[in-house]
Amino acid sequence: MIFCNAPRLGRWLAAGLGAAALALHAQPLAPPLPIRPLPVPVPGASPEAPPAEVDELIRLGKFKVSGDIFDETIDPTGMDAPEAERAESPFSNDLIMVETADDDPLHDIGTELSAIAAAPPADTAAGVNRVNLKGFPTPRQRNGFTQVGMPEILNPGGSESIQGPLTPVVGRAAPGGIQNFISARPRGRKSSRLSLVATSKDYLGADFELSGQLVPKKAWHRFSVAANQRLGPQPFTYNRHRAANGAVVWKLNRAWSSMVQFDYDERAANAPPNLADYRATASSKILGPYRPLADFNIYGPNAGYRKRTASAVLQLEGQIGRRVSVRASLQGFTRSFDEDRWTTGPFLLDTKKFSGIREPQHVEQPFSAVTGQIDVTTRFFVLKADHKITVSLDTTSTDYERVQSALTIADRNALPADVRFFDPAAPNYFRPAYEPGRFSRFITNRAEENRYTGIFLSERAAFMKGRLVVTAGVRRDFVTIDVSDRKPGAVQPKVSDETGEVTGHFGANYVAVPGKILVFANTSTAFEPSSRVDARTGRVQGNETTLGYEAGGKGLFFERRLALIAMGFVYFNQNISRRNPLYDDPILDANQTQPQLVAAGEERFTGGSLEGRYKVSDAFSLGARATYNRAITTASPDLPEEIGRELSRFPWLTGGLTARYTFGRAGRWPGLSIGAGLTYVSDTVSSYENKTRVYLAYPSYTLASLSASYRWKAGNFNHSLTATVRNALDYDLLASVARVGGERDYGISYGLSW
C-alpha cells in the first residue's frame, strides 16, 4: 500500500476523521422547508366559479431542445471537480472568479525575475533551484494534489496561485501562495490543434494535440507531442526539448470517473552558467561580470546536460452519496540527469586568462519517487451555515542520488597546459570522454531516501448565504530522511533522522457591498523539508519555515467594466540554515562541540500589490499590475553585517501595463487584434562588498512589447496568426544589467484547430 509509511498516529487520526466525515453524511445540505398541508375539499361546498373571461391564448413559434455532448461549456468526463469548486456557491462568488489582469504582464515580470535570480540553467533543470518570486520555496500542487519532495511537474496545461480571496474557497494556504499546476487532460470534446512558432533568436517550436471520444459518453482521450529548440546566443549554445503526453478518462458510472496519464519529457542543452566575473589581479576583489566575453562560451562544444523524465498517474474522482466527495491520486515519477561541466575561475585582466585550474567534471542526479494522496470532503448545513470539511492524507517516497566526479589529480595534471589555464583568445576545448574509471575523484557522492507523510484537516464555513466565508486548517507532516555519504573519508557516512512540523492557516472573505466589493484576510505557515547534514553532529538541519499575513480587497466598478484587487502582505522566512560562527573557533570550540550549522537565519518581506483590468469599450481594454516588496535580512549569525540589508538580486518594485484593441466581427478588420505592453523592474543590488567582491548594483529598466493577432475560419478549420516584438525599443540589457541575449526579438506563430 502507498500509505504503509504513515506513522501510527497518522493512521488513527485519518480513520477517526474519515468516520466523522461519513457520520456527517446524514446531515441535510440545507435546513428543511416548512411542510404546508394541502387544502382538503369540504363536502357540500360549491366549487369556485370560473372566471367570466378567458385570457387569449399565446401561440409560440417552433423551437427545439437538444443537448450536445461536445458543448464547450460542459465537461462530461467527471474530472472537473477542482474547477467546479472554484465557482461553487455559497463559498465562491463572481467577485472572486473575475479576472483582474492579463497573463502577458505576469509572464513578462516572471521572466525578468528569473533572469535577475541568475540561477545556472543546469540547476534549474535539475530542480536544485526552486525559489518563487517572494524569495522562498513555494508549495506546489498538481491538479490539487500535494507535490512534497517532487522536483518538477510535467505536462502543465495551466496554473493558478492559491492566495488572497481564493484561500477560503479552496481551504488551503501558504505564505506567498500555493502554485497549483493543472495538467492538460481530456475535456470531453473532439478537437485537434497544431501550433508553429519561430523567433528571430533562432527559436523554433511545434506542437500537435488530438482529443476525442473512445467510447461515446464513457471514455475520452487526449494525446499531444511537442518539440522546440533554441540556438545561441553564444557559439555552441543550444537548448532542445521534446515531449509527449497521453491521457484516457473512463467514466465508471454517474458518480465516479478515473483517469490515466503518461507524460514524457526530454531536454538537452549546452549553456554557459552566466556571464563570467573578472578581477584586476588574482588577489584583488571580483569587480562584476566581464561584458567583453558576452559572446564567448566558456564551456565550449563538449559540455551540457541531458535530462529524461517520465511520469505515470492514476487519478480517481467521485462521490459517496450526495454529500461526500472523494479525490485520489497515485503517481510514479522517474528522472535521469547527467551533465558535463567545467570549473572556471574569474577572468584576470593582468594575465588575460581565467584564474585557477580549469578542469572537467561530470554530474549525475538520478531521481525516482512514488506519491499518493486521498482527499475526502463532506458538505452539510448546521448552525445557519454551509460547511465543508476536508480530510487529506498524502505520502511520498523518494530516492535521489547526487554524484559529482572529476579526473584524478594525476590525470588532471596531464591535461595540456592551455586546457588547465584557459585563454579565451586561444581556447583549447579538449575534454577527455567520460568514463567512471577515469572520473574517479568524487567531489560529491551522496544518496538520499526520504519519506514525507502529511495529514491535513480543513474547514470552510459560509455564513449569510455566502456573504461571509471562513476557513481554518491544520497540517501535520512527518519526514524521515536517510542520507548515505559514499565519498571516501566521509565524516558521517550514514545519517538517519526524523522530523515533523505542524502548519496551518486561517482566513476569511466578506462581501462588503454585494456584487461590487469583497474584502479578505489570511494568515498561514508552511515549511520546506531540509536534507542538509551537519558535519559535526550528523543531524539533518532544521526545516526552513515561513509565516505570512495577507489582507486586501477586490471589487467591480463602473458597471463591472473595472476590476481591481489590492493586497498587502508580510512574510517571514525563518530557520534558514547558516554556518555557525563559533564552529572551529580556537577558544569557544576548543572541545569540538559546536555544530557546523545553525538554523538561525531570518528574512522579512513586506509590501503590497495592485492589479486591475479596465474595459474601456467592447473593443478596447487596459490591464496593469504593480508589486512593492521590501525584502531584508533580519537575522544572520555568520554574517551580521547583512542584518537590515535588502536581499541581493531582488527588485523592490515591479510592474506591468498592457493595452489591447480587438476589431469586431462586423468591422473593417474582423478577427484582428493588436496589443502593446510595458514591463518595469526597479534597481537591484547584485552583490554587497565583502572579502571577495565589491559592491555592485544595477539600475531600473523598462521593456516594451508589441503584438498583433488575426483569426479567421475557413470551412471547419480555425486559423490564427500572431506576430510579437519583445523588447521593442531594443533596450541594451547587456550594458545596463549584464544580461546576454536580451536584444529585440521578433516572433511569429501560426495555429490551426479543427
Describe the overall structure.
The protein has 754 residues and is mainly beta. The chain has a single domain, classed as Maltoporin, Chain A, CATH 2.40.170. The protein is built from nine helices and 32 strands. The protein has a 23-stranded antiparallel beta sheet that branches. Strands 2-1-4-3 form a four-stranded mixed beta sheet, with no helix packed on it. A hairpin with a 4-residue loop joins strand 22 (544-557) and strand 23. The longest helix is centred in the N-terminal third of the chain and has 16 residues, at 8-23. Residues 1-52, 63-71 and 128-135 have low confidence and may be disordered.
Tally the helices: 9
Helix content: under 10%
The CA-CA distance between the termini, in Å, is 43 Å
- The total tally of domains equals 1
Sheet with most strands: 23 strands, antiparallel
Oligomer: single chain
| Uncertain residue ranges | 1-52, 63-71, 128-135
Question: Would you identify the CATH H-level superfamily?
Answer: TonB-dependent receptor, beta-barrel domain
Q: Total strand count, please?
A: 32
Structural class: mainly beta
Shape: globular
CATH fold-type name: Maltoporin, Chain A
**How many whole angstroms does the radius of gyration measure?**
30 Å
Mean pLDDT figure: 85
CATH architecture group name: Beta Barrel
CATH classification, class level: Mainly Beta
- Strand residues, percent: over 45%
